Every structure is written in structure tokens, then in C-alpha cells.
Amino acid sequence: MAFQKRILIVDDSEELRDALSAYLTKSGFDVVTAVDGEQMHKVLAQGEPSLIILDVMLPGDDGFTLCSQIRKTSNVPIIMLTAVTDEIDRVTGLELGADDYITKTFSPRELLARIKALLRRSQFNQSLEGARYICFLDWKLDTLARVLVTPGGDETTLSGADFSLLSLFLRHPNKPLSRNIISETIRGREAMPLERGIDIQVSRLRAKLEDQDHLLIRTLRNEGYMLSADVIHEA
Which residues contact 26 (CB under 8 A, 6 or more apart)? Predict the structure, then answer.
């Protein structure tokens, strides 16, 4: 790495914070920690980290509330820590704008792989093939500001996950993309069996694109999804 990436760990378990801090520091990251939302906001006020690891179960405001608060002002990548069997936690986190989730049975090496994948994606998302604006149908994406402009001229700022997913579709218009390809590209890993995360992200993006009839982002049986539109790149 040319410079140290800063990672913020928000978890009320001192044992977990210390273990992750030691491992990620040894892996070349600058690590800061917080035990709850109040400490988290104090850390964020001093500068935005490169990535946040956010536990769901926290004293005071829980991880869902904090994720929602962060997304009002920032697209920083967020990995949520969830309990082993709480599928609803994973779904809720993604709906609120988290980029990935991992259960607390994870190995440090798995978490490190997830972190590196999201940081690569975040760096790549700074631009899309050198084009400032990407037009499709009557929509326009500002790739630098990460703003989606509706046919009526309204603007919506996209979260990191939504921007990555739309960017992927725009790089491959009118081509089927399997759930595994989508997951590998935006998360750095294959989709797990019965995992709903990709479907939830597609559903959220469809809502932003007012694609209630699924005509813009089509579902292809046994194949995945496809953006059904021609794409024009503008400088």
C-alpha cells in the first residue's frame, strides 16, 4: 500500500476489538476503535476512515441505526458484524446501505479478504473508464459525484454498494450477469447458497431507478440479471 488505510472498528467487545486491531495492524492498516455510537461519531469527526467494521448489537444506538446515520453523509464502505443465525440482520443491514456482512464465526483471514475487496472496489469507483457521465435511457450517472440524475432532473446520491452495482451493469449493458459474477465483482467473493444479499441490492437499485416493472434491470431465469439499455459515455 502506498499509504496506510484507516479502519474503524465499532464493537463493545474489548476482546474482539483488541484481537482485530492486532491482526489488522499487523496486516498494514491503521486501526482505530469505538465501543458505541457516541465514540464512533467522535472518531468520524476527526476524519473519515477508509472502511468501518460495525457490530449490529451495541449499547445505545444499534448498528442498524448507526449505519443509517453514516449513510446520510458518507459512502465509506461498511462491513456489518452479525450473529450466526440472524438472516434478518444481514438483510436489514444491506437495506440500510451496508456494503457487506460477516458473521461472528469469521476467521481473521476471511475478514481481511473482505476488507481488501471492498477497498479495491472503493478505489475503482472513483471513476468509471474515464467517463464523467454515463447516460442510459433518460437517466444519467455522475461517476465522480456518485449522483444519479432522474429523467425529471432530480438528483440522488448513491451509497457505495448501489454505485458499484449500477457501475457494473453500465460496464456490461445488455449482457447477463450471474449472482456469482456480481458478488465477486462488488464484494470480492462468490455468493453463498441461498444468500439474498445480491437480490436485495438489485431490488434497492431498481427502486432508485423507478423500475417497478423490472424492464430496465431484467431478471433472467437461471442466469441472473441484465441491464436492458444502451449506454453512452460522456467526458
Answer: none
Domain boundaries, the chain: 6-125, 133-234
73 grid coordinates: 453523509
Report helix, strand and coil shares of the chain as percent, to nearest 5.
Answer: 40, 25, 40
Can you list the residues of the chain whose pLDDT is less than 50?
Answer: 1-2, 127
The CATH number that domain 133-234 falls under is 1.10.10.10
Residue 31 and residue 66: Cα distance in Å, rounded? 19
Instruction: Note the CATH number of domain 6-125.
Output: 3.40.50.2300
Query: For residue 205, which of 138, 155, 136, 158 has the smallest C-alpha distance?
Result: 158
* pLDDT tens digits, 42-64: 999 999 999 999 999 999 999 99
Helix axes 197-208, 87-95, angle to 10 degrees: 30
49 in Cβ contact with 26 (< 8 Å): no
